[in-house]
Write a structure and sequence with these properties.
- The protein has 330 residues and is an alpha/beta fold.
- It has helices spanning 2-19, 36-51, 72-78, 110-117, 122-132, 172-180, 193-199, 209-214, 240-244, 248-282, 292-300, 303-324; strands at 23-28, 56-61, 83-87, 136-151, 166-169, 184-187, 205-208, 223-226, 231-239, 286-289.
- The longest helix is centred in the last third of the chain and has 35 residues, at 248-282.
Length: 330
Amino acid sequence: MFRESLVAAACLSVLGSAAFAQEKMRISLQLPLTSHLGENLVLFEKEVEERTGGAIDVEIYDSATLYKDSEVPAAVGSGSIEAGVASLTRYVGDAPVVDIFYMPFLFNTEDKVRAAVAEGSPVREVLEEEIAKTGGQVLYWQAYGGAILLSQEEPIRQPADLEGKKVRVFGKTLGDFVSAAGGAPTLISGSEQYLAYQRGTVDVGMTGVSGVKSRKLWEVMDTITVTNHADIEFVVVVNTDWWAGLDPELQGHIQDAAKVAQDDVRDRMSQIEADAYAAAEENGMTIIELSDEELAAWQAVSQPVFDSYLEATGEAGQKIFDALGVNSGS
């Protein structure tokens, strides 16, 4: 009887292991876990593992441990990793249309941003269709806030202040904006910008204010200029083949978890930015708010960026411009 009980227990153990076999979902992130995108992924991990009863084991590799942000689209698309977080602009090589969020001052209010990123919006649909052609598909969006400029000792108030200066950018269209203002754009990965500022590789920085806090950029820069000239969006992308191989029920649980995480970071973005500005000031940074006249000067030099975008994106770009009511010739 004892032997039969042991055999039965062993059978149940084997069956249980099969029933609860885990599927790994590794996610690459360029930022540290202490950043708001890192915290958001931790929330997503918790939601997924609870909703799937542990059937999906989420592993987060932060601080560019596995891949730099520029490498994420190819890594996910090829299946080298199941998922990754990337700035939208990292897809610009395959899908130039993604840089719509970097059109200067086009998304300069929260209402405009929310309308554009809403599920089912023309903007979001076009972008996700283009990204899907790379072998990865968007699971959810992560808000990162407005773009700002960083400098050391000399504040950046108007386009003339960029003339002759090297400026860190993280996308082609942002580079076009800097060029239109008279600066020299230099493409530098997010995980490498601290050293770039420290070593003087560039004179002026560009990032989101939350990145100033998470990366402690006040150690290498002392001034923030609040331009909000672009809206920075990240996307959590999953490999298409890996996703297709999941049980539909598991897909549904992951999508529900993604919705929770997506809404959470979007709803907290304003407070996240406010906290980051406060932290920057507490650590000695000067915050420069621009006047209406100064903002108008930046907008006045931006038209070539819109022209270049439309030339690069063609029909897809025009479709988005039409949806947004943008007159590309103005």
